[in-house]
Amino acid sequence: MALTAELQQKFTRKYALEMDDADDLAKYRTAFLHPKLHGKKAIYFCGNSLGLQPVKARDYLQEELDDWAEYGVEGHFEAKRPWFKYHHYFTQSAARLVGAKESEVVMCNTLSVNLHLLMLSFYRPTKKRFKIIMEAGAFPSDMYAVETQVKMHGFDPKTAIIELTPAKGKHTLELSDILATIKKHKNTLALVMMGGVNYYTGQYFDMEKITKAAHEVGAFAGFDLAHAVGNKVLHLHDWKVDFACWCSYKYLNSGPGAVAGLYVYEKHAKDKKIFRLGGWWGHDEKTRFQMKKGFKPMPTAESWQLSNAAVFNMAAHRASLDIFDEVGMHALAEKSLHLTGYAEMLLKSLTNLKFQIITPEDSTQRGCQLSLLFKSKGKETFEALKKASIIADWREPNVIRIAPVPLYNSFEDVYTLYDVMKNIS
Ligand SMILES: *Cc1c(COP(=O)(O)O)cnc(C)c1O
Fold it and tell me: Whose CA is nearest to atom 2 of ligand 1?
């Protein structure tokens, strides 16, 4: 089919550059440090694995090092940002990012740890209700967490874990199938625990409908938002999601192993009868330093904290969240829609390579990531991208994941990807 002239001009670098010129968020590209590959500034499409370093991260870290040098232990109270309440500096931003009340969120620990801590509270199986529904092919850490939690309670993962699998010939899940599976196990279901966005396919799930269906059968619903936070506009509180956790080193650009977040629905956070493992930082703030016997949890998500704040790990997170606070998720999601849509349009036109985009076409069912499943030449394509200083992500057996991130990727980046792929023979 011949392209109309109007459509044809979109397949040019000139058009991509015009789009960048018209982009209000283009200026944030220079708020990040872009890595090099083969001595050339790389085009980075791996923000879904490890986000880029905010330029200001170094200053924020240096500030804490300086305060440590200057004050020693007094830094807990005398530092420019006193360390004893360092986790408070994220409350407002984290609540905005996931659509929660301030009492429902806290930044602490790391992601897999938080998932375990939350499952200790929300997976309390009985002889009758012991099943967990999750996606087949979830991120390995989530699979292992669910498997070992089930075993800890004396159940058999084979019967206790119900995996959602795509229909034959499909790569992603249908909402109707997810809801039907919840109904099917209605009398034995304890928990639905899924990714908000599946890390492999990039599919974004309807957390509101899934949560509602779980509640209708008397089960809890929790989500791992590793690939959803900083990517999609979320409304956890309004959706009545019971719990969620996320890491901050993917779309949230806070550095390798950076601090994770957790969310607990207000009603549960206030409920002292819900079990949580105790540590002094989860203990009531008013009496925390009295060092007395008897764990009194805070009536907020902060009661799931165990330890005092990991300040160095959190300093870079501040640098990143300052940018998110300035830009806002709505503006990011809006650009993301266009940027990923542009990538999809260009890549779909390629006829020299045999691949299929397995990420849903429907933009309400995806974020910025596109997953390309190759029939052949997947690895060769990946190597060719690398040679052209394009950093993408390879997943066995033959998927290339690319994430055009609205904060620091440009339309020209996307065009270059297309141009390099077009010239692979
Ligand atoms: C990235 C990711 C993790 C990683 O867990 P860590 O504890 O941060 O190492 C876990 N689950 C999902 C779904 C992820 O995408």
Answer: 226
Q: What is the CATH number of the domain that holds 353?
A: 3.90.1150.10
Q: How far does the chain reach from its first CA to its final CA, in angstroms?
A: 22
- Domain co-membership, 160 together with 211: yes
What gap in Å lies between CA 56 and CA 306, rounded to an integer?
Answer: 29
Cβ < 6 Å from ligand 1: which residues?
A: 110-112, 139, 141-142, 195, 199, 224, 226-227, 247
Task: List the beta bridge partners of residue 105.
Answer: 263
Confidence class for position 2, pLDDT limits 50, 70, 90: low
Ligand 1 atom with the smallest distance to the CA of 195 is 13
Range of the domain at 363: 5-33+328-422
Q: What is the pLDDT of residues 136-148, one digit of tens each?
A: 999 999 999 999 9
Q: Looking at 270, 293, 325, which one is the last position of a domain?
A: 325
Q: Which DSSP string do the residues of 329-341 spell out, in sequence order?
A: HHHHHHHHHHHHH
Q: Whose Cα sits closest to atom 15 in ligand 1?
A: 226
Spatial distance between the Cα atoms of 12 and 346, rounded to a whole number of angstroms: 10
Confidence at residue 64, expressed as pLDDT on a 0 to 100 scale = 98
Answer whether residue 366 is part of any domain. Answer: yes
Pocket test for ligand 1, best of 144, 199, 232 (most atoms within 8 A of CB): 199
My answer on whether 299 and 399 are in the same domain is: no
The answer to whether residues 352 and 379 touch, using CB atoms and an 8 Å cutoff, is: no
Total domain count, the chain: 2
One domain, residues 82 and 120: yes
Q: pLDDT per residue over 190-222, tens digit each?
A: 999 999 999 999 999 999 999 999 999 999 999
